[in-house]
């Protein structure tokens, strides 16, 4: 099965080798809110007027060195036609000092004035260069981040949980082929990569090879299998959490390399069945699964003063103990005593989130 899936995935690494400027339409790194275009235009006009005023003042103060300048309006007129490179020639510098002043001051100001006039074009070019440089730096520095593949209902809920648990938005990378979904993710401050996650080169663009964890949440189970296999192949040490709709596909995803599998249809079905018998319990379960209100299930490292004690006696409501990557329920023998390096699974109050 692995060989046939590898054939379907292919070995195309062309996108991963593209230069940063060729990835501007593929990788999107959130930017701070930009000023209004009208404000930018007004600011450039103000700069241009300042240059004209400065130039006019300098010319008027040295009006004896110019032929045709007797009033300040003459100086403004000369500055306007000179800085805009129109140059009618009716006013000219005649003394050596005035000509030197034109070379050292008016000419640089003329260049700056022209830059302001074509500022929009230059701004676009500069912006693309800046974004390309930012992508280059991001690809070099991004480490131990979380990649969310698929930004549908499950992917959005996963990112919401990550953000609520304190993961910075710039440490989450979303991979999807839907531009609208990526636009929504970008509006939340998430880095986005556009493309099919079944392609290894797209996964490499998202930094999967250096990621701490990968959430696989596509809409189709067979796609989840393909993506999981590809992720595990290029990122052997990453933690992979995958979602499938049907339980019979769970073992395929595990065989492909997933560390954990969430069965969305069964989970929803259990909640529906539970709601018919005990609606209040369902409400509490939804509260525990909603990281931004009420209570939530969290994990933390044990404190030094807690080592050697019984987790049942802790202030927190403990559900289990994680030791060497293995989870032991609170009623198991292994969880009777807390050992150094253990992590406890507990119910956290959202108001206490910053204190734990």
Automatic annotation (TrEMBL):
InterPro entries: K_chnl_dom (IPR013099), NAD(P)-bd_dom_sf (IPR036291), RCK_N (IPR003148), Trk_Ktr_HKT_K-transport (IPR050721)
Species in which this protein is naturally found: Corynebacterium terpenotabidum Y-11
GO biological process: potassium ion transport
Gene Ontology cellular-component terms listed: plasma membrane
Keyword annotations of the record: Membrane, Transmembrane, Transmembrane helix
Record-annotated membrane-spanning stretches: 45-61, 103-126
Major subcellular location class: membrane
Topology term for the membrane: Multi-pass membrane protein
Superkingdom of origin: Bacteria
Protein name: RCK N-terminal domain-containing protein
Domain RCK N-terminal: 143-263
Localization per record: Cell membrane
């Amino acid at each position: 099965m692995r060989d046939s899936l590898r054939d379907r995935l292919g070995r195309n690494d062309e996108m991963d080798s593209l230069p940063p400027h060729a990835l501007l339409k593929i990788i999107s790194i959130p930017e701070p809110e930009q000023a209004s275009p009208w404000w930018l235009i007004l600011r450039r006009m103000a700069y241009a007027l300042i240059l004209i005023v400065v130039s006019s003042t300098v010319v008027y103060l040295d009006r004896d060195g110019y032929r045709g300048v007797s009033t300040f309006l003459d100086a403004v007129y000369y500055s306007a036609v000179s800085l805009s490179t129109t140059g009618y020639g009716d006013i000219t510098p005649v003394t050596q000092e005035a000509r030197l002043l034109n070379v050292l001051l008016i000419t640089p100001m003329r260049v700056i004035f022209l830059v302001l006039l074509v500022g929009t074009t230059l701004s676009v070019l500069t912006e693309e260069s800046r974004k390309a440089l930012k992508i280059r730096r991001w690809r070099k520095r991004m480490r131990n981040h979380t990649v969310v593949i698929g930004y549908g209902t499950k992917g959005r809920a996963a990112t919401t949980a990550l953000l609520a648990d304190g993961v910075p938005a710039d440490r989450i990378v979303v991979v999807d082929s839907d531009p609208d979904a990526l636009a929504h993710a970008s509006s939340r401050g998430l880095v986005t990569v556009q493309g099919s996650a079944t392609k290894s080169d797209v996964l490499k663009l998202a930094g999967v090879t250096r990621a701490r964890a990968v959430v696989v949440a596509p809409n189709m189970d067979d796609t989840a299998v393909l993506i999981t296999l590809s992720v595990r192949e290029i990122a052997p040490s990453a933690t992979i959490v995958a979602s499938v709709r049907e339980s019979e596909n769970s073992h395929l995803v595990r065989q492909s390399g997933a560390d954990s599998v969430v069965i969305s249809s069964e989970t929803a079905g259990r909640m529906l069945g539970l709601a018919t018998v005990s609606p209040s319990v369902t409400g509490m379960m939804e509260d525990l699964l909603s990281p931004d209100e009420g209570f939530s299930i969290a994990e933390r490292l044990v404190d030094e003063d807690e080592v050697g004690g019984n987790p049942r006696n802790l202030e927190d409501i403990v559900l289990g103990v994680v030791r060497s990557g293995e989870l032991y329920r609170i009623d198991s023998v292994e969880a009777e005593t807390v050992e150094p390096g253990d992590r406890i699974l507990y119910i956290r109050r959202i108001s206490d989130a910053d204190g734990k």
